[in-house]
Design brief:
globular; disordered N terminus; two-stranded antiparallel sheet; alpha/beta
């Protein structure tokens, strides 16, 4: 259905690793550190650990790095950051370590090295490819607020009454997070994760850290490059965002690109009306989508049967539309068409019958507590990085102003989040003051980190180069989308360390 990486607002304990302690870390805002000694071992946590088994099959090994919870108190409480490694096989021409982050925030990346090794082709044998579950994510002391939902986005709905319910809902989510993980929340910031990365660099014995970040991972990489400018090596920032906008304020920037992607999908579905029956033209398909959202505001839509029965109102339905728009491949577009068809059946008051395995899985992950931990980490990181307006009226005015032009995603992406009720960040936003010769990658129709953000980051980093994929509504390209031009540009840079002489434009 979707590609296997977590993106901005998309949809276990660190056991079995040998750890060593540290007392701190050099760099921005932290004390000097002893270099930890890593002890590598099996990545498999148990008989049901599929991720660990896949890593083992690829020849990977795993370890843990102990880092301070609070870098202002380096000898106090500590956390364990879990990492994986596929070692370079061409040791004579080894370039160094390549650290990965698949985004999120809250995205586990410890399982990514086999995928990236395949994308790197021959270049892979010259790198130690390092996966990382950032602090509070996956195997790295996961933070869990005990939330009843796993999705990152809910809509304000179609009325003031539905918005008021959202205010109460998000206020309750924030209260649950304080009750379940309040002592951790102030330390969930990207700046602390960047400090953790520098501990990992030191533990690996590297003078510089090479890096491949996707989505939110581009912000993390930018922050690392600003906090530790002399230690950033070859940097690839794929699906890049404007670091000045990152935080709760980034959501409204996604409205136009997602409405555009929805309109493109509607044309795709109209061309297959014989299969899906959603409309013979793009406008007819969009009208059907808007009709489903309106119907959900009148009465919850009942999807599924038996144990897999879900009741979704107008605050929940837009998320089902938002998720598949991340990628404009035929697989995602077909899945979205199936979703809208099921929603249309429910809107007519007819039983939908058993749901497809993919749709039932999406609903369980989005609207139950099944994915509470990754959703909690995602919101904790965003809220720890940048403050959000406190007054609900700020959001309501934005929702109302957007309804006419953006009826599906305006109320969703202008809605408030738990950040409106969160503790204020402890550190200021990272400002870009140091140039960074990075390779920035973006698609013109990226619906998650819109293309203007990549252009803005390129402007902030004069020595960088921008690789643009034209005419594509997709987020995260290298090794995912299958564009030979993009993949070749990234591999050439990581293999040689030389950026293209000029910005590069790739066709679909």
């Amino acid at each position: 259905m979707t590609r296997p990486h977590i993106t901005l607002l998309g949809a276990g304990l660190a056991l079995g690793f040998a750890m060593t302690g540290i007392t701190g870390v050099t760099g921005a805002g932290a004390a000097a550190a002893a270099t930890p000694q890593l002890r590598w071992g099996s990545c498999v946590l148990g008989p049901d650990d599929r991720e660990g088994q896949e890593l083992a099959a690829a020849g990977a090994e795993c370890a843990g790095v102990r880092v301070p919870l609070d870098y202002r108190r380096p000898q106090g409480r500590s956390l364990t950051v879990a990492i994986s490694r596929i070692r370079a096989t061409d040791r004579a021409h080894r370039i160094g370590a390549l650290l990965l982050d698949d985004g999120g925030p809250g995205g586990a990346t410890i399982g990514a090295p086999p995928r990236v090794a395949a994308a790197l082709k021959d270049v892979a044998k010259r790198y130690d490819i390092i996966g990382m579950d950032p602090r509070f994510v996956g195997r790295s002391n996961p933070l869990d607020c005990g939330w009843p939902v796993g999705s990152g986005i809910t809509s304000a709905g179609n009325s003031r009454a539905s918005f008021e319910r959202q205010v109460a809902f998000h206020k309750d989510l924030a209260a649950k997070c304080r009750a379940n993980a309040g002592d951790l929340l102030p330390h969930a910031s990207t700046r602390n994760t960047a400090r953790d990365m520098d501990v990992i660099r030191a533990a690996l014995g590297e003078r510089k850290l090479n890096y491949l970040g996707v989505s939110y991972g581009t912000y993390l990489g930018t922050v690392y490059g600003q906090m530790f400018p002399g230690r950033a090596g070859r940097m690839v920032l794929d699906g890049a965002l404007d670091p000045r906008v990152y935080g709760p304020a980034m959501l409204p920037t996604m409205i136009g690109p997602n409405e555009h992607a929805l309109a493109d999908w509607a044309e795709w579905a109209a061309a297959r009306n014989g299969t899906y029956g959603l409309g013979r033209t793009g406008p007819e398909v969009l009208a059907a989508v808007r009709g489903v959202v309106a119907a959900a505001g009148r009465a919850p839509l009942v999807l599924g049967a038996g144990a897999d029965t879900f009741r979704l109102d107008d605050t929940q339905v837009p998320f089902l539309l938002f998720g598949p728009l991340m990628d404009d491949g035929d697989g995602n577009r077909a899945f979205l068409a199936d979703v809208v068809k099921v929603l249309g059946t429910a809107a007519e008051g007819r039983p939908t019958g058993p749901l497809s395995a993919d749709l039932a899985d999406l609903l369980r992950h989005s609207f139950t507590g099944m994915d509470s931990a990754p959703a909690s980490a995602q919101m904790a990181i965003i809220c720890a990085d940048a403050a959000a307006p406190r007054d609900p009226e700020v959001y309501w005015r934005a929702v109302e102003a957007s309804r006419a032009e953006h009826p599906v995603f305006g109320p969703a992406l202008n809605n408030l989040t738990p950040c409106a009720f969160w503790e204020r960040p402890r550190e200021r936003r990272t400002e870009v003051r140091h140039d960074l010769p990075a390779l920035i990658v973006s698609a013109t129709g990226d619906p998650r980190t819109p293309y203007p953000g990549a252009v803005a980051l390129h402007g902030l980093l004069p020595s960088s180069r921008l690789v643009t994929l034209q005419g594509v509504n997709s987020h995260g390209l290298y090794g995912f989308y299958g564009n030979a031009c993009v993949d070749a540009a990234v591999n050439a840079y990581l293999g040689t360390g030389r950026l293209p002489q000029a910005d590069l434009t790739c066709g679909r």
